[in-house]
Write a structure and sequence with these properties.
Hypothetical protein af1432; mainly alpha; about 70% helix; 11 helices
Length: about 190
Amino acid sequence: MQYKYYLKCLKGMLSDKRLRHSLKVSNTAVRLAELYGADCEKAALAGLLHDCARDLPNDELLTLARHNRVPVDSIDEARPVLLHASVGALLAKRQFSVQDEAVLQAIALHTLGDETMTLLDKIVFVADKVEPDRSFPGVGELREIARRNLDRALLCCFDAAIMLSVRNGDLIHPRAVRARNGIRLKMG
Ligand SMILES: [Fe+2]
Ligand SMILES: [Fe+2]
């Protein structure tokens, strides 16, 4: 992997804080990949690039999505930040020349998930929430769960995000609900 090249590109796209987060997600994703038998290189790359579009302004996220046939619904229009995952996958392909569809999908799904998620998708999703700089209440327990049961950790991530939106009176994207139910159904 051209890790140094990617890092150099990311430095021009992300704040220092976001870059540090991206590096930590990459490291955490590698550790989870080792634990669960996923491809460590893919986990490292998807983790490093997952937020490459996160610092783009809302209008740019919407324009990039619309011009590249990324589906945009009414909730994305109201909360364009949600598009940073799918636009991030687009940039990873275009600007970073990532061809690996599994890596691109893990980047695209790291915010809202999907009804069916691969092991790599789950690893990147959970690594984003449990990397060492995260400090929300319950993160220690979530880290423990992530080490023992990845599906349960994923369910906890969805539940926490959905409950936070409800508490804040905010919108909930139906894809997050479908993803949450997908994992819950799988658990029986
Ligand atoms: Fe993100
Ligand atoms: Fe992130």
